[in-house]
Amino acid sequence: MKLKSTYLLLVVLILSGLSSCNKNEKVKPAVTGKFLKFFGNGGMNEAESLVETSDGFILVGYSTMLDPQKERNKDIFIVKTDKNGNRQWERRLASDYDEQARHVLLLDDRFLVTGYRKDSTGDSQAIVAQYDLAGNLIGEVLSFGSKNVKEDAYHITALPGNEFLLSGVRDSSGQVNMYLTRINLSEDVIWQRNVGVLTQKDSLSKVLTTSDGNLLWCGTAWRAGNVQDVRCILSTPEAGLIWAYEYGSPNVNESGRDIIISPDGGFVVTGTQGAGANRKIMVMKFGQNGSLQWTKTPASGAGDGYSIRNVSNGGFILTGRKDIGNENTDLLLLRLNADGEPLWEKRFGGTRNDAGKSVLEASDGFFAAAGYADIYDNENHVFYFIKVDTDGNLND
């Protein structure tokens, strides 16, 4: 009984903290279009992907229940807000599995969520869940995988003919490869490709379709001495290789986490260069043929780049995390020009760990980012959702 009372008191304190954090009198979203919001239940809640709808935003990620008497399995967690960041509804896909959403794809009349499902044996399958725009689950959650294999989908891409690409990683008996699967929503696998180097590790973060229908891959390769390099691939629509390159400096870790096609037809990758206290947010710019044009580390201090997008009036907006000392981090927003030079840098957070995992330019020209904030301790995060003006300002 004492344990239950302590648990209830902890939940009350955390929820009270969430309520007070939302009351920033200087932020008036209905007037300014700017806001800072937290969503969650007091357990671990982390937003991984963000998309804008016609009337607001959808955030997806995972959540655990703060209950010391239960195992803290991850559940897919979805929050829908209005255009001012006010919660309209939330959905938790609770099951006996460990499940996490990695990416959300908005379609005309529904949205798709992809990620992974882990069973009691430790094997995992890539999954796709369909929801209507009111947040109702359509049919069953689709799963794609094999026995004795761990598969995780980081991203989903729409293709012609109501087909889709799942991209991520596949671990078969310790052999970790880039994983690409073409599917339909009848749970059929059209084809599957695994790309890697024997006895070494390759991870696929994202795949895009180019203007001519080819596939542009981005990820990370672990090579001799466990040194990481950015790996980019251009393939045909059926995943036939056109070119493949690895980019990196000798004995320096460089990872590729997100990729966009730039207005000039080339592409841009963000990730991390270095390790530990010496790591830097990294941005790489490439030509259409995969030639490296420049590499920049535009942020001050140590940090990691997680998401980058084009900006309508030129340049890029990036989010990630920045070290602030004592092993803590802040959510970082970084505005870059077309040459990767910083125009401004803003960080948001408290005295613990905060990070931005997904960023976009909203329809009003402002910037929105989603990730997580640690408001209690390193075991209790909430969805962190922020929208700033074109100069990165939250308050007037």
Q: Can you describe what's shown?
A:
The chain has 396 residues and is mainly β. The chain has a single domain, classed as Methylamine Dehydrogenase, Chain H (7 Propeller), CATH 2.130.10.10. It is built from 2 helices and 28 strands. It has a 4-stranded antiparallel beta sheet with strand order 1-28-27-26. A 4-stranded antiparallel beta sheet has the order 2-3-4-5, with no helix packed on it. Strands 6-7-8-9 form a 4-stranded antiparallel beta sheet, with no helix packed on it. β15 and β16 form a beta hairpin. The longest helix has 20 residues.
Keywords:
396 residues; mainly beta; Methylamine Dehydrogenase, Chain H; four-stranded antiparallel β-sheet; 2 helices; disordered N terminus
